[in-house]
Amino acid sequence: MNTPEIPAQSQDSMPADEYKMDPAPDYAPRHPGVGKLRDKVALITGGDSGIGRAISVLFAREGAKIAIAYLEEDRDAKETQRLVEEEGGTCLLISGDLGTKDHCEATVKAVIDEYGQLDVLINNGAQQWLDEDFADLAEDKIDRMIASNIKAYMFTTQAALPYLKKGAAIINTSSINAFAGKGSLITYSMTRGASLAFSRSLAGNLADKGIRVNSVAPGPIWTPFIPGTLPADKVENFGTDTPLGRAGQPWEVATAYLFLASSDGSYYTGQTLHPNGGKVVGA
């Protein structure tokens, strides 16, 4: 697969905006839908852009009704909603801070009020920034990262559990950095390690209820995380250090979530898939 070169660029916000990226991330599904998620309802946090957008569009193509939760990126969220509707689906938009338990509960309630059920929960929303000078990292930044990347996953799952029935799926986004570590992303890597451990532990807790819990640990993927985290010169040619020699695109990661959410992945729980361009890490 040939992908366009990534020029130097940077954004001064986190979460960053997909509509500002050059080239635009590739979210588009590659194959016709066959109804793998027909009559299912999926809540996708961080669904406005990046991997979350690709998941939303792919799930809609496979017949799911979509709800996306995001912080405040309204322009990106409305574009994702439009793309889902182009697939013949419906897309509920829910904005706000999932780092608070009250909002997580309100988000799940909004999904139930709109659709009457919840079958797939994708805990994907997160924040990331460099913390190279770890000794001077401010307490409020650590708290913000933990709220976004750990508490949000736990609170949203707690709110969803009363509505998840046998056959439901929970998929948590982890990262290659949970396995390999990253010296300039210490706090982020810590939180992705937490989402990995959360997935494995919760899988054992819910197995007797017939609810599967898995994770996906992407490598370098061209999403708003990248210009929102790295200085412009570090963004240029992002991902070329992988064995495949390029960054991954969101659509190439979304297929892992579809596999785990659908009956294709019915014998998978407590597992992790690794779309990372060929970097070998621990299981």
TrEMBL record:
This is NAD(P)-dependent dehydrogenase, short-chain alcohol dehydrogenase family. Coiled coil: none annotated. Residues 1-32 are annotated as: Disordered. InterPro entries: NAD(P)-bd_dom_sf, SDR_fam. Residues 1-13 have a biased composition (Polar residues). GO terms for molecular function: oxidoreductase activity, acting on CH-OH group of donors. Keywords: Oxidoreductase. PANTHER family: NADPH-DEPENDENT ALDEHYDE REDUCTASE 1, CHLOROPLASTIC, NADPH-DEPENDENT ALDEHYDE REDUCTASE-LIKE PROTEIN, CHLOROPLASTIC-RELATED. Belongs to the short-chain dehydrogenases/reductases (SDR) family.
